[in-house]
Task: structure prediction
Amino acid sequence: MPPHDLALHCLQCARVHAVTLTRYVCDCGGLLEARGAWWIEPSLLSGRGVWRYSSMLPFPDAAPWVTLNEGATPLVPLSKEGGNKVAVKLEGANPTGSFKDRGMTLGLTWAKALGAKAVVCASTGNTSASAAAYAARAGLNCIVLLPEGKVAQGKVAQAVAHGARLVTVRGSFDDAMGMVSALAAKGDVYLVNSLNPLRLEGQKTLAFEVVEAMGWNVPDVMVFPVGNAGNVSAAWKALKELKALHMIDRLPRLVGVQAEGAAPIARAIAAGASEVTAVAKPETVATAIRIGDPVNATKAMAAFRESKGAVLTVTDDEILAAQRDLAAREGLFVEPSSAAPLAGWRKLAAQGAIAADESVVLVATGHGLKDAAAWKPEPRVIDPTLEALEAILR
Result:
């Protein structure tokens, strides 16, 4: 039996479901949320990373954890702007270079426990790399669907290296997502996209780490890049759980940043709509958030509204400028989607929507080597002499 009185609760009709190999959404179509009798006592925490917070996570009894020692990523203050009030949660320090590893350790642990023969996902890149690595660790097959021509090659290379079976779809990520959801509903294969509420539980630990690093306090604002919207949804759930357990006494404002060409949630929030209207052909240089129909939109919109936060858009030029500045001025090389929070914070700070004395955490979800196509070196070739070197340095 699963621990913690674990059950999956529908956020739409309130129906309660048990955990099974084929259960990812409610029969009514509503999104599910994992709930249980969580508890936390800081003095009893041990180990590092995701499983340090195992008392707040749903894990199957007697099942070995499928782990690569994910989590425990740095919280790095900016040195050139923000007045020491802005820090970056550097998720590129995870084993496969992105935040996806936090959820994948839960996803593959449950896949093993439920007797899945393989795991499956649709991906814009990071999910495929992470799923393939953790499937290899678990000894399971991994099937990945990728939208044709829309995934950075560095991420594809990771999935190939870890032995995943790649299938390219003539369509968008959203098309691929519909296909893997239908396949997983038949059984045998386990879905490890963020539609899976148990995978999202692992992603809660990002918020736990931020709060613990700040002495069990919360920042005033947390800023996330938003694609499928699972990360911000998981963080909000974690923060509410900590407040319910009296571990924190307030909640931060959550800010989501989307690229102008892939901004269904920002548009819905701006219009006061209760649901998103999908973007048929999302386009942005930030491939990790190039998603037109985010599966966790309902959860994320509730998080932004409940936290009195905001969702805004930034241009590709603003994203790339933020990426260059993080690399050249701060020594932090992140993929374009991970630079979107800095671009968004700059815009809100300039508008006065985030005050200069407020503490801010920018969530950088993936390493720059994941998507480095824009960074092509142009070396100056010289003769092997000191004179030639001094000449070029002048």
Q: What stands out?
A: The CA atoms of residues 47 and 53 lie 9 Å apart. The two ends are 71 Å apart (CA to CA).
